[in-house]
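@channel anyone free to eyeball this complex?
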Amino acid sequence: MIKRSLCLAMLMASQAAWSNEVSGVVRDAQGQPVPNARVEVVGSHVRVNTDAEGRFELQGLAAEGVELHIEAPTFAHRIVHAPVSDGTPLEIRLSRSVLEVIDVRALPWHASKLESARPVDALAGEQLRNRQTSTLGDTLALELGVHSNYYGPVASSPVIRGLEGPRVLITQNGLGAGDASRTGPDHMVATETSTAQQIEILRGPATLLYGSGAIGGVVNVVDDRVPSDNETRGEWQAEYNDVADEKLVSGSLTTGFDRFAFHVDGFLRESNDYKIPVAAEIEDDHDHGHDEQGHGNYRLENSAYEGSGFNLGSSYLLDNGFVGISYGRLERTYGIPGHSHGEGDDHGHDHGHDHGNGQEDEEDVYSDLVQDRWQLHSELTLDNPIFSAVNTRLGYTDYTHKEIEHGQVFTTFDVTSYEGKMDLFHHPIAHWRGALSLQYKYEDYVAEGAEAFTPPSETESIALALVEERHFGDVQIQLGARLERVEVKADQVIVDMGGHGHDHDHGHDHGNEENLLNVYSVKHVFEPFSLSAGAVWDFAYGYNLGVSLSHSQRAPSAAELLSHGAHIGTNAYEVGALFVIHEEGDGDYHYDLNPNVIELETSNNIDISLRKFEGDIGFTLGAFYNQIDDFYYLQETGLTAEAGGDHGHDHGHDHGDEGFPLYIYTARDARLYGFEGEFVWQASEPLKLSVFSDYTRANLRDGGDLPRIPPLRVGGQLNYRLNNLGAELNATHYFEQEKIAALESESEGYTLVNAQLSYYLTAAGQDMTFYVRGSNLLDEEARPHTSFLKDKAPLPGRAFAAGIRATF
Amino acid sequence: MNKHAISYLTYPALALSAVLLTACGGSSTNIIERDPIADDDHDDHHHDHGDLGGRLLISEHDDDHVYVYDVAHEEVIAEMHLDGVPTALYATPGQRYGVVVRGGDNGQVNFVDSGLYWEDHGDHGHMHEGDPALLELELFGDRPAHVTNGGHRTAIFFDGNAGAPAQVKVVNDHDMSATPALLEYSANQHGAAQVRSSYLLSSILDHEEESTLPNLVGVYHRHDGIYELEETLDVGCPGLHGSAQNAHHIAFGCTDGVLLIEEHRHDNSRDYHAHKISSEIRIGTLFGHDHLEDFVGVGGGVLYRVATEGEGSIEPINWTGEADLPVVGSVDSIVWGDLSAVGYAFAEHGELFVILDNHGGLTVLDTHDWDVVGERLQVTHSHSAPDGLRFEMTVSGDGHFVFVTDPAEQEIRVVDIEDREVYDTFSLDFTPNKLVWLGVVTEEDDHDDHGHDEHGHNDDHDHEDEHDHGDEHDHDH
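replying in thread with the prediction:
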């Protein structure tokens, strides 16, 4: 097997112009050598692992010295400046850290949450495996500053500091997820957590690196689909969870020979409807519809799913890096809970979010999605006087998502996307190291059918970004800027602009009137510009203070601009910012084109983080203030629109005159602020205690709160590990949410308690873990305020899972 | 052309220079209005399988009220008080009117206007959505029992009792204000009648036994609003009970099989030829559909295909399957051995025959081969009806939706019969007993999927030849 990094280092040694070398030894605080620590030259792909005595040697380095990034499991990462050529071996001391320190690969330079000016986090290894669920949102729901928007257990996606949808970018290995999850909460994120290696979270604006979709944050799902080396490794897992008879098997293998590396992974998962502790609907005292099993044994109708997927990848290992390609397929069929149109006896006068107290009666409304994803990754070290390395990522994703009701396809979403991204790293210039990033993205979005509330559109963006970083003594400065051009084109925006109203006694007497629909060809061009500056100050041993300022702009998405139709997932008639509504009194209104300039959404954000990371006690404390001008949100109008208003995309169900509450995308100034913090104490060798809390407040500057903002949350966790046994107990209390938007209702607080017991065993060359896990042990009725379905779909009830997993 | 907010620069795709040269933070919008297009289906929320619409006439259990429930708006829009508790509900052939029957001695029949009707203007028409109303027309008589439809008429058979002879009263769907045509007998009988245009094929009791079941069928013709006997068919039908009709035949159930009557049309008259499809099974109930040559018979709780080809035949239909009945969903509480039918109906233009069972499930038969389609579908939440009640069903005018009552849950479950899936649920705040779908049936909907007991149908457009009868226009008034 070839370790590419060693091979690379040897190659470098042969190049006369870059023949400088560094060697050294990595030790812990007691002076014991740290084997298998990774030592990397920052800003390059040159890296080696230390040997059993903690020694390393790097060759072929730039003459003026380099910065080395050293990381090892359970130790705080360190960056040291290494002068070259004086021949003295370096001695690098690492301190143990009780905090999880995982490199975030979404950053141009690998860095953990302790080293970045901006708040980042990563979920990997055992913790990821313990937390993973069938959806990305629920997998990350216990991460700092992250909540799940919980669209039932089938389509939850992450809410970062109260922001979601088009403001939180989901990426797979740094390239867009290429799905329809940003347009509706009932659309699943097309990624898989069971085969992911790690999932990274960038909280707060990350537009600099990812473009204008990332004004609220980024979630990057990393897997090994394009292997960067061919060391044989793998893992597999099988789990059963009784809450929904959920079964999961997954596995991955990376191997290779000579200069070839291969990767394969796959998973199969399925479930029945989820058990819930109470009747699904919040005011349902008849338990019609939900209670198929009798009292006290409720299931959330239409919450079953089945999914499968695989990735195949292969790389060619070059002397100066690798280039590889992968193909992945993801298939998922899942019920859409809460998709009910039945009515109670409320005679249709309830135009609130609840849309009547409809009984859950649909048994066959589900989504069927298929995604094919091709990715090309390459990381190359360059023999160039200016540029040191280039990372290239190309992606092509073909995504189809059908919403099927009663065996009939009612809506089809087709998303085809191409993306290319190139990061060009330069050699340090006046001790500034940095990278230039060029990005191109094209997305063709077509939705046809009942829920096609957004017209077909094409979005094309091109961007150039520069990030630079430099140490000034104890202070590291990080700067960045990005220019972007986003073009949103929709050639056929077909809208009924004419008079509408609250006409409750309309007959079906339109038959012989010809109602004309307006047709527009729309092209929006936006040029968002983003800037950021950050500093990390190592003000005392084992402590640092991070400050990050950013000015970010976001182009509103096609859905926010062009929507005009009933959106079943949000139970609202959504009208894009391209239009305005003129009220005529008595509930009548008509539409017009928005005469005003469609503004860019602009965020000015400050983040402050204080961290202590060495010793038996560690913590991170962070606060943020984010002022967003021209924040696009769905403003309630108090009017009602009929589903049929969107030019014949009649939905399969007859909503009758009841219609949908009419919302229009409106730009207002908003501010979001809050805090995040965690505190970890290694009380004794086997026992670790941690507590965490996060909070976000979000309101409009001229009054009013934003909807679905997560409440204050406080949690605690106890980990015990002795020999082959591990135990974890965690409890999280979600406070009630009383800060609500118009037409929103307050949410009760709740407490979730989970526990896990693990037994570790090494057998047959594999590190195996047998585990049992209980979740929501109190069988608490939990209705997340972040969920569109909070009144219709509580979180799953008490659940027990058992499983086995192994790595080799 | 309406140009709007035009500030538009052309950038070549991928032209980095354009990005860099453009002022930061800008945005522009270019909108071109194109020629408008016609909105084909504005306000038309139809399902691909057809509209879920119309109104349901629902009687309340043990109560003298009926309700009109608007299907599209999912709400009760009218409530009507009657003189007694209705025992059966039917629809007239056009399904605009509901027929509310209170059986027993001193029985009463009322008619409810659904408020929905189609006003035809030749090349186009209007659907009228008015308020439901109880019609002034009321029929009184002893023991109104069998109600059947033919053409655009509804025949109501009043059995009478020891002191009161039987009567048949026939109302005209097209003119509910007219006096019903009348057939008067000399004695009481538990009879059955089928109306064919100006003819009425109605039972005759001509035996000395104790039974009130008739044994013959007479051909009656209407003159001045009175049905007069033209002929007594020469083939008998002992223990006559149950009748139905389709495009070419009228059938009566007998203890020795089925009396099948073939209709022959002439310019000014029709005549009827009868023969017996013999069977050892007593057929007590029959169903027919205009699009179907076969009838369906029920005898001794068993379903039979009554084939009319040639001499005809009667063969059992196995719809409950073997002991290992296919079950949809996990329904532990059902003991399958006691599965029995409580309702029957045609759906999908006679393509399907739907059986509602005593556990609230539907079994669907393909009428081409009388095989069960798919699996039994559990429709209702409860698996048995409360004492004194049973599950009831009705079919929408387009034949796509079956409405099933769940009295215990006070619900009506709507089944998309083609997909055999529960499509919607209506919650009621009363306990439903009987129900019938009312509304507008367009020609393409083929309003002939309704088969309650004794509820065979005819099709106006194919069979009515009343223009040949001079007595048609004045006799009914």
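from a first look: The first strand of chain A starts at residue 20 and ends at 28.
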